[in-house]
Structure formats: structure tokens, C-alpha cells
Amino acid sequence: MNAKASDPTNETSPNAFTGYGDFNQLNPLFARPGEATDFPLDQIPAGESLPETAYQIVHDESMLDGNARLNLATFVGTWMDDHAIKLYMESADKNMIDKDEYPQTAAIETRCWKMIARLWNAPDAENSIGTSTIGSSEACMLGGLALKRRWQLARRAAGKSTDKPNLVLSSAVQVCWEKFCNYWDVEARFVPISLEHKVLDGHDLEQYVDENTIGVVAIMGVTYTGMYEPVAEIAAALDRIQDKTGLDVKIHVDGASGGMIAPFLHTDLEWDFRVDRVVSISTSAHKYGLVYPGLGWVVWRTVGDLPEDLVFEVSYLGGTMPTFALNFSRPGAQVLLQYYLFLRLGWDGYRRVQQASHDVALYLSGEIAAISAFELWNDGSDIPVFAWQLKEGYTDKWNLYHLSERLRLKGWLIPAYPMPDDISDLVVQRIVVRNGFSRNLAESLVIDIKEAVEYLDRLETPIPAEGQVTSFTH
Fold first, then answer.
1. pLDDT tens track for 440-453
2. Which one of 173, 183, 217, 471 is least enclosed by Cβ atoms within 10 Å?
3. What residues contact residue 248 under an 8 Å CB cut-off, 6+ apart?
4. 261-293: per-residue pLDDT in tens?
5. Distance CA 425, CA 131 (A)
6. 133 by DSSP, 3-state: which?
7. What values do phi and psi take at 45, rounded to 5?
């Protein structure tokens, strides 16, 4: 054998190592440095690695996450079409706050919230005002801040104290409202839900509203169960309170999910700006707006409903712009994705997509209601979300936490969790049907639920319940 040709240190040898390029060709992917050795987990490595190696490691770790299509716990969208993904990649570098550099993206943002203002029946969309946000949590924060500032301005004009603002909400409210009250020193007054009043419906509202109430939050799609809170009934209760006390309390509608369902599937339901007391509405575009996370929208009925002193004029990169936001730099790509979907689907396309999810939810709730172990809390006829409970006295061998764990073995993420205070001894399970969850997948889920129940029913002794924790995801 020719010694020169077999010498790996000889640069003329076909096996000579002359750098990472040759090393990559010579060695299998998973045997090269970084794949065959460990990276530190909680500190920056001392040296660099091949981009292919870094990619593969991150890719492989992310495989340990659940399958998003089988995650029936989250409201957040997990599917967009190939054109949207292409647009996303093309616009990933756009900074929404930099309106001087990206004026067309800024113009598209304005088009989108005006479209949404019209969708929500604003009396005059040109005299409305809105903005995109990082998800509906920021949108809710901005809506709450506007309510607080309006109340403060009115109290100061009347020479009254602004020391003790409060906000009235359902006990089943999303956690972002608890954060708002905590962060901005507002007393949260929770109206408890009950078996008789499953949502905030105006019942006993006069016990919670007083001169320090900055507003009432109505939820279009309660996180725990998916049920709508009747905005018109809440407004009617506030009308009666004003007749008796003179207090004029406004409503912010948290339409995180229902804000993009009701306009297409429940067109006759008056929940939006058709209700005079509603001054602002927020929604989560990355839920039933069908956009990847994270994007939200908030719109005020009129420019006058957003106090001027909350809006900043900011000089940035050669321009001056008004801004009302908690975040500064943030992605512009999702705004373009929202505009793409508005153009791609139109009103009828959105209606058909939402109807498909609605139909699957009703199918699933009907199948689950037919299983003798369960009793529905609601059937998914509002947003495509429903919850059920274990029938009282059905079994002492297992509970819904055990069923959730059993379904996870098949890849399904279906949370079990306690309801809010006053009925916290009641545990429910909830399914969220999103775009991309087909009827075929739903049929497979029903089979797996029935098999899991049959397995649990065959147990001869109770499963230990120690250490069980809620798997509820807001």
C-alpha cells in the first residue's frame, strides 16, 4: 500500500483533514464534535461550533416538546399555510415600532385595526383608534389602563380622591387581568361563578360596583370553559345601577377568543360596540385570528375613549410617531400575517374556517356527553371550547386527572383542573378545538377517550391521588 497515500496528515491524501469542511464530509453527523460530546447547558460555550451542529442540537431538543396538533389545552394557533410561512420568513426582521423605517407595515397595521373596528360594529371606524399588541394580554393591559385613566381624570375634575380604584370581573377571568390589577394597583373585585351563574351575567352586580369602579370586564369566551359572558345583560345591569346611583360604569370586552368567532358565527349576538357601554374591545390574533403567536389587537370606540395623556409622541430614527404600548421593539411579521389572512380568507373564508372548528367541537362534546362517566359543563356552542366533569358518584377508583394522564400516553394534552373559588372542589376537563384539528383526528380522540375510560373502569382498587396537580393552562 502506498504510504504517502495512506498518511492522513499528508495534504494530498484523500483522507487528509484540512478543516471543518473536510471533517464534516468524513464523519457521520452524530459523531462530530458537539453531537458526540456535551455542550454546557447553562453557560455560553467557550468556542464556536458548526451551524449545522448547533441547529441539530436545538432541533433535537425541541423534539422533546409535545405535538402541537395534539395539544387541546392551548388556545394558541399552531398552523398556518405555506404562503404565510414564506411571508413570515421574508418579514422576520421588521420592527413594528420603527414606523419611519417600515412605513408600509405601519400603514398595514392601521388597515388591520380599522377592519377589526368595522368587524366589531364601531359606529365610525374612521373615528376609532386601535393598535396591535404582543398578544391579548398586552391588549387587556392597555384597555384596563385606559379605563383607569378615564376614571382618574373624571374624579380629579370633580375634586374627588383617586386612591382606591377597583375593577369588577368574573372569578373565572384570565390571569392577565389579575396581573393588571396587581401591577397597576387596582383592587380586583371578583364576582364568583356558581352552578346557577356559570359566567358573569349581571347577577348581584350592584354589590360590587361603587364610585371607585373604573369598569367591568366582560369575557367573550371564558378561559375555563369557553362560554360567552352576556355583554348586553351586563350592560343592562349597569344601566339599572346608573338609574339608582348615577354611576356611569363602562365595559371593556375581553374578546381574546370570541372576538374573532362571534362576528362570523353569532352575527345577531350584541356583544360589541353595538352595546353603548362598551368602550374598548381586545382580541388575541394568535388564537382564532389564526395567526402564529404573538399578536393581539385592541380598539376603542372613539378617539375620545383613549385618554390623550396615555399616548406618547416618540422621536425615533428620524421620525416622530404616536405610540400607546407597553412594549417598544416588537415583531412586525405577525401584523403582515394578519393582513394576509384578511385578504386570503375574507369574511366568508373566516366564517367557514371558524364553522369547521365549531362543528368539530359540537361533535366531540356530543360524543363525550354520551359516555356514561361524564356530564357536560357546556357544549362548545359559543367558541369551539367545552368542558365536562365526572358524574357525581360514578367511581371512587379514578378521577379526571388520571384520565388526563392516561390520554397523555397517546400524545393528547387535555387538561384537568379545578374551577375557581366557591366551586373549586369541582374538577373539569376542557378541549379547545383550533384550526387544523380535523374531524378525523376528533374521531381518533373519541376512541382513545373511550378506551382510557374502559381501562380505568376495570381497575380493582383506587389509583393513588397523592401529588396530583392541575395541568390547567390559561
1. 999 999 999 999 99
2. 183
3. 242
4. 999 999 999 999 999 999 999 999 999 999 999
5. 40
6. strand
7. -60, 155
The candidate with the shortest Cα–Cα distance to 309, out of 296, 322, 328, 326, is 322
Residue 289 phi/psi, 5° resolution?
-75, -15
Q: Can you tell me which residue has the cell 369598569?
A: 215
- Domains in the chain (CATH in brackets) are 3-62 (no CATH), 86-342 (3.40.640.10), 355-457 (3.90.1150.160)
Asked whether 203 and 225 are in contact (CB, 8 A), the reply is: no
C-alpha distance from residue 91 to each of 96, 183, 473 (Å): 11, 33, 30
**Cβ distance 230 to 202 under 8 Å?**
yes
- Give the Cα separation of 216 and 207 in Å (integer): 13
> Using alpha carbons only, how large is the chain's radius of gyration in Å?
27
Q: The C-alpha cell of 209 is what?
A: 360596583
Q: Take residue 190 and report the three cell numbers written for it.
A: 371578583
Q: Say how many residues make up the chain.
A: 474
pLDDT in tens, 222-259: 999 999 999 999 999 999 999 999 999 999 999 999 99
In angstroms, rounded to a whole number, what is the distance separating the alpha carbons of residues 75 and 372?
28
Residue 17 makes CB contacts below 8 A (sequence gap 6+) with 8, 23, 26
DSSP string, 151-173: HHHHHHHTT---S--EEEEETT-
